[in-house]
Design brief:
alpha/beta, Phosphorylase Kinase, domain 1, Rossmann fold, Dimethylsulfoxide Reductase, domain 2, 6 domains, 7-stranded mixed sheet, 6-stranded mixed beta barrel, 31% helix, globular, binds ligand MGD, binds iron/sulfur cluster, binds molybdenum atom
């Protein structure tokens, strides 16, 4: 056994992991005590990394399709990349460089990013290179640049621990940045008088730590921040000396916020005046004020304005550049920061430069040894896919992102991908929605197999190291790009020495870092070897530095031309899409604790479905009652763009009038193109970040009386692919995994009438539910049929259709591997369980590490147990801690009389 220190591939906290492996297989993963981001901690996702990534779901070989109606066939790398270079060269010859585009990802490593960027801007000569960070961080980029002059989060994780007053806005960090939340929890436990304000329309697990939760009306954050500033000015709690010495534009802002009186703000935001006063007094009184924010601010048509209105509060109070203070945007993806640094949004260039700035273009062109860089502005994600659909983009390269799941307005994205003459998808997993559209599928090495660097939320650069080899012929992203680029060079510029002669990620890093020299982020002093020697480092880190920089702007000098920060005075604007009588509910979307985005990786570990098993639309009980709906019932949720059929979940943490659907469920897990078929692509005018958090929807009942439940153990990926195809023929289809040691696939379907016997026979044949070991029952007149396969007395597969009463009981028998033969005669009966037996309702796993269910914890709470006793008796919450906020909430809910 060997151990390799690397970095977690999920969120922007950027935790260090220790990978235990034998050179071929990863056995376990633990937190790296030496990594400054996590000091040994991991969350429920990081600690289960070794359970994910089922090889059967991975892309092993390049595959090429030679005609839209044909299937892809395996090719070798030489054939794949030569073909790609030929198609790109021909497209550029015929239609110009802007007829090709790249859509890449904040999950690429800095070296991957740099190679894509250099390829697009120099060799091809287009700015059509955008990344999924457009959906994620682009409003924060605009926010920082407008207020502070550069896209640089000025704080450190230690500030989270040291701050006396924290404002957490539009961030569910208990689930999305769990290890930081653990650090905050520990600091709050030590110092309970630390004030924490959470601003979120939902009562999330993050609210568990809040002294004050402002459940504002979605989209109204700008008014709230202006309202706070109004009160701070009124109460003389602003820092006039700081404003005079270090900022510009205060007068204009002061006169704008005069109008944001407590009465107006309370009405606009749907909060109480008293709460607004309380929040303002805490911010005004404190020694150190820190704000943390994420998608609740960024993913909005007012995303940039929200960012700047929040930064205004820090500038007005002088709460920036000192311990425990500052505006700290939490980055989503592990290398969203690296993408911004390498200039991998269409409007940027490497080293925090702008593509629209002629001087910046000139600097980069000189560095790259080319005459000039393209002037034509590049397309940003939403516009890019519109251009693809309109036929203006004729070759599209997608890498490390799954737009056919994660982009808003999915109908458009699927049409675009189907229309585009040549689509390259560079992916680690073949199972994603986007892979179906690949004309050329390039298998990528993934976490644990590749090397490079990533920058986390606190500007800290870590070395990502490989432990094992990639499966099949999969290759590292940078190496695919450079190999392609060398082929395209030979075709476009024969005889020229290659600009892409990179044969290791360290070489790419060394060339790239020169582009940061003299810029605000300057990390020209770093190298892979130095990071190995000193440990992960925070930028700036120039050639004369010995240690990374913990905090920016400590001297009050900002990255603007005159060194002064800029107040931004903008009014609250209306959402792009509001509710009306046809679409009276506001749809909010976001993360679950244990899933990652489109679930290509987390969706391979059955254990990670224990907390939330299937797609459900969360709705306030009053909204359910008003529609005469029951918890768990199938409903139709429709927006102006599309609709989905799925179960509804009664959720008191929602505010009436608002519904919530996790973003993870794509077309693979939920028929109908998944969550984003509902969302809109209206975007912020400056950042072009789409308003993914707010869309108008309606919820109506559906009549789908014929229901079916299927469970099949083993060979999960093969069954998934085949069953998902057949499942398309039902009106409702939800897929998921269950179990821990023995994973099984479950498929739930519903339809208006019973499907053909032939369809059911096809399903049975796929699942071997048609052999001698299968118990069967058929009543064609009533549309009921059942199949249960036993192996050594134990259930290994089952299908209940038309009548599914025994579903939960049979499932619990499967789970417990019960072989009691006396029960067999009940298997096909129309009862939920034999008399006296437990129906076996599926139970949510609250603690994933220790496998502790909701009902056990509830029973403990009923016996009067508090958190410490629950931890002691069941072990829940003692490992990664991700479930602790939920357990606390269960305890406090139980304390409130019904
Ligand atoms: N478990 C898990 N963790 C992740 C990820 C994941 O997929 N799974 N993805 C990572 C990535 S890429 C990202 S970007 C981050 C996202 O991290 P977060 O932004 O924290 O997560 P979300 O759930 O998308 O949204 C946060 C909150 O914004 C709230 N919100 C919605 N509208 C508004 C509004 O108008 N105002 C305010 N103030 N709040 C609003 C929502 O109710 C939600 O609770 O998570 C990262 N971490
Ligand atoms: N409704 C709604 N939609 C949203 C959001 C929301 O809050 N609500 N959030 C948005 C945000 S913030 C984000 S960041 C996006 C995320 O959306 P996506 O970028 O689509 O998210 P992932 O599913 O993580 O896609 C990454 C892909 O890269 C693949 N992959 C993994 N490792 C590697 C590798 O090393 N190389 C290559 N080439 N591929 C690899 C994975 O299999 C996966 O398919 O979703 C956005 N969409
Ligand atoms: S908080 Fe969890 S998901 Fe994020 S980097 Fe750390 S271990 Fe990975
Ligand atoms: Mo993100």
């Amino acid at each position: 056994m060997k151990q390799t220190a690397s970095t977690c591939c999920y969120c922007g906290v950027g935790c260090g992991v220790l990978i235990d492996h034998d050179g071929e297989k990863i056995h376990t993963v633990s937190g790296d005590p030496a990594h400054p981001a996590n000091l040994g901690r991991l969350c429920s996702k990081g600690s289960t990394l070794h359970l994910t990534g089922d090889l059967a779901a991975r892309a092993h070989y390049p595959e090429l399709r030679l005609g839209k109606s044909l299937a892809r066939a395996r090719v070798d790398w030489d054939g794949a990349l030569s073909h790609a270079a030929e198609v790109f060269a021909r497209t550029i010859d015929e239609h110009g460089p802007d007829s090709v585009a790249f859509y890449i990802s904040g999950q690429l490593l800095t070296e991957d990013y740099y190679s894509f960027n250099k390829l697009a801007r120099t060799l091809i000569g287009t700015n059509n290179i955008d990344s999924n960070s457009r959906l994620c961080m682009s409003s924060a980029v605009v926010g920082y640049k407008r207020s502070l002059g550069a896209d640089a989060p000025p704080c450190s994780y230690t500030d989270i621990e040291q701050s006396q007053c924290l404002l957490i806005a539009g961030s569910n960090m208990a689930w999305a940045h769990p290890v930081l939340f653990r650090r905050l929890e520990a600091a709050k436990a030590e110092q309970p008088d630390k004030r924490i304000i959470v601003i979120d329309p939902r009562r999330t697990d993050t609210c568990e730590i809040a002294d004050l939760h402002l459940a504002l009306r979605p989209g109204t954050d700008v008014a709230l921040f202006h309202g706070l500033l109004h009160l701070l000015i009124e109460q003389r709690q602003i820092d006039h000396a700081f404003i005079a010495a270090h900022t510009d534009g205060f007068e204009a802002l002061q006169s704008l916020v005069e109008r944001y009186t407590p009465a107006l703000v309370a009405a606009e935001c749907g909060i109480s005046e008293a709460d607004l006063h309380l929040a303002a007094s805490w911010i005004g009184d404190t020694q150190s004020f820190l704000s943390l924010w994420c998608m609740g601010l960024n993913q909005s048509s007012a995303g940039s304005a929200k960012n700047n209105a929040l930064i205004n509060l820090h500038l007005a109070t002088g709460q920036i550049g000192k311990v425990g203070s500052g505006p700290f945007s939490l980055t989503g993806q592990p290398n969203a920061m690296g993408g911004r640094e390498t200039g991998s949004l269409s409007n940027l260039l490497p080293g925090h430069r702008d593509a629209a700035n002629p001087e910046h273009r000139r600097e980069v062109a000189i560095y790259w040894g080319v005459d000039n860089l393209p002037e034509q502005p590049g397309l940003s994600a939403v516009d890019l896919f519109e251009a693809v659909r309109a036929g203006r983009i004729k070759a599209l390269w997608v890498a490390c992102t799954n737009p056919a799941q994660s982009m808003p307005n999915q109908q458009l994205i699927h049409e675009a991908l189907a229309t585009c003459p040549f689509v390259i998808v560079q992916e680690a997993f073949t199972t994603t929605e986007t892979c179906s559209y690949a004309d050329l599928l390039l298998p990528a090495a993934s976490w644990g197999e590749k090397e490079g660097t990533v920058t986390n939320s606190e500007r800290r650069i870590s070395h990502v190291r490989p432990a094992i080899g990639a499966p099949g012929e999969a290759r590292a992203d940078w190496s695919i790009v450079c190999d392609f680029a060398r082929r395209l060079e030979r075709r476009l510029l024969p005889g020229r020495p290659s600009q892409f002669a990179f044969y290791s990620p360290a070489e790419l890093f060394d060339e790239y870092k020169g582009l940061t020299r003299g810029r605000d982020l300057d990390y020209s002093g770093l190298s892979h070897a130095l990071i190995d020697r000193l440990g992960p480092q925070q930028w700036p880190f120039n050639a004369s530095t010995e240690q990374g920089t913990e905090r920016l702007y400590t001297d009050g000098r900002f990255a603007t031309a005159n060194g002064r920060a800029q107040f931004i005075a903008e009014h609250l604007t209306e959402l792009k899409e509001t509710t009306d009588s046809d679409y009276p509910l506001l749809l909010n979307t976001g993360r679950l604790r244990d899933q990652w985005h489109g679930m290509s990786r987390t969706g391979t570990a059955a254990q990670l479905f224990g907390h939330v098993e299937l797609a459900q639309l969360a709705m306030h009980p009053d909204d359910l009652a008003a529609r005469d709906l029951q918890d768990g019932q199938l409903i139709r949720v429709s927006s102006r763009r599309g609709e989905l059929v799925l179960p509804v979940l009664a959720e008191p943490a929602q505010r009436p009038g608002q519904v919530f659907l996790p973003m993870h469920w794509g077309d693979r897990f939920l028929k109908g193109l998944g969550c984003n078929v509902l969302t809109q692509n209206g975007y912020d005018p400056l950042s072009k970040q789409p308003e993914l958090k707010q869309s108008g929807v309606q919820v109506t009942p559906v009549q789908l009386p014929w229901e079916s439940f299927l469970l099949i153990e083993g060979d999960v990926q093969r069954h998934f692919a085949a069953l998902r195809r057949l499942g398309e023929r039902f009106d409702y289809l939800g897929m998921g995994l269950i179990g821990r040691e023995r994973p099984a696939l479950v498929m739930r379907t519903a339809a208006a009438t019973a499907p053909s016997a032939a369809l059911l026979a096809e399903i049975d044949s796929l699942c071997s539910l048609d052999d001698a070991s299968t118990m069967r029952y058929d009543d064609p007149a009533s549309g009921v049929s059942k199949r249960i396969r036993l192996s050594e007395g134990r259930i290994t597969a089952l299908r209940l259709s038309g009548e599914t009463l025994a579903r939960d009981w049979l499932r619990s028998l499967w789970q417990s591997a019960d072989t009691d033969a006396s029960l067999h005669r009940w298997f096909l009966a129309p009862v939920s369980a034999p008399p006296g037996a437990d129906v076996g309702r599926p139970d949510k796993t609250v603690c994933n590490c220790m496998n502790v269910s909701e009902s056990r914890i509830c029973a403990g709470i009923e016996r009067g147990m508090q958190l410490d006793q629950l931890k002691q008796e069941f072990g829940c919450g003692t490992q990664c801690g991700s479930c602790v906020p939920e357990i606390k909430r269960m305890i406090s809910n139980a304390a409130v009389p019904a």
